[in-house]
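in:
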């Protein structure tokens, strides 16, 4: 078995060896996927947009009616302690790290779907060294398919970052079988929502459109940053309903996430988007975002 990339995890306030046993098999996260998580990037020991990720974490917890067993300051300190323990907090080299905060409802010896009274949440933080997207991805772009899974935009679960990831795994398997990199989700009425781990961007002229909130997508922190900063590269950012026809009428397409940043998408369902190559606006958005992350990591 391949050993973990990091030698420690942080669990409920303690640094522990990453290879050891950590949670009970009776934990509701393991039994039912009853939990939420956040994934973010750190550089030079600085967790990027941590405040926004914690705010979204609390919104997810509130939706599922449970809460952290301690304050946010404990998580902030836990991330710092974990990065320091792994030696990934140095100024140089400024390698990026992926950070995951997972919160399960916790230990529950009862078998039912409804949680028992008195569960105490389990909180784990993990880190991995982050390898930048390959040259192929940035220079040639990714190929997508449309998943057969359809999202209900009115579902109360839409927009919650739960640890129940079965539909994302299924969609990635669809993509693998088709020789593609990722899959795009549509709503039941045919609107674009998001990809498996990223939000969608369509560029036409000087307009960059992204599906509006309320269409079954997760409100990504990178998406929010781009909505506020697209003008820096000459783009007017708009949030609106988008459909498949809009993809093929676009000059460029991309996806964005906290971990991978802005990634060009050049084909959907084996049809070329724009010129079938990463476009200059997408590359400019990616560069602007990466430069901002580096500046934040140096100034904090």
């Amino acid at each position: 078995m391949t050993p973990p990339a990091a030698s420690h995890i942080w669990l409920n306030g303690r640094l522990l060896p990453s290879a050891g046993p950590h949670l009970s098999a009776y934990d509701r996260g393991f039994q039912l996927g009853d939990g939420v998580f956040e994934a973010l990037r750190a550089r030079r020991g600085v967790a990027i947009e941590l405040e926004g990720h914690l705010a979204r974490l609390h919104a997810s917890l509130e939706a599922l009616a449970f809460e952290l067993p301690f304050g946010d300051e404990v998580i902030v300190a836990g991330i710092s302690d974990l990065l320091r323990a792994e030696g990934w907090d140095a100024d140089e080299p400024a390698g990026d790290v992926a950070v995951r905060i997972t919160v399960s409802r916790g230990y529950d010896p009862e078998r039912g779907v409804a949680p028992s009274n008195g569960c105490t949440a389990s909180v784990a933080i993990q880190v991995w060294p982050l390898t930048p997207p390959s040259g192929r991805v940035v220079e040639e772009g990714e190929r997508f398919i449309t998943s057969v899974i359809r999202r209900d935009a009115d579902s109360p679960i839409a927009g919650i970052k739960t640890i129940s990831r079965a539909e994302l795994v299924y969609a990635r398997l669809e993509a693998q079988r088709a020789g593609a990199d990722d899959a795009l989700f549509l709503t039941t009425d045919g609107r674009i929502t998001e990809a498996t781990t990223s939000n969608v961007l369509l560029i036409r002229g000087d307009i960059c459109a992204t599906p509006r909130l309320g269409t079954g997508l997760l409100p990504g922190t990178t998406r929010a940053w781009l909505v506020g900063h697209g003008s820096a590269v000459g783009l007017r950012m708009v949030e609106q309903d988008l459909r498949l026809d809009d993809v093929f009428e676009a000059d460029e397409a991309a996806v964005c996430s906290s971990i991978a940043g802005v990634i060009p998408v050049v084909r959907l369902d084996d049809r070329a988007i724009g010129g079938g190559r990463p476009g200059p606006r997408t590359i400019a958005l990616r560069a602007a975002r990466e430069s901002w992350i580096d500046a934040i990591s140096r100034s904090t």
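note: The domain at 135-299 is CATH 3.20.10.10 (D-amino Acid Aminotransferase; Chain A, domain 2).
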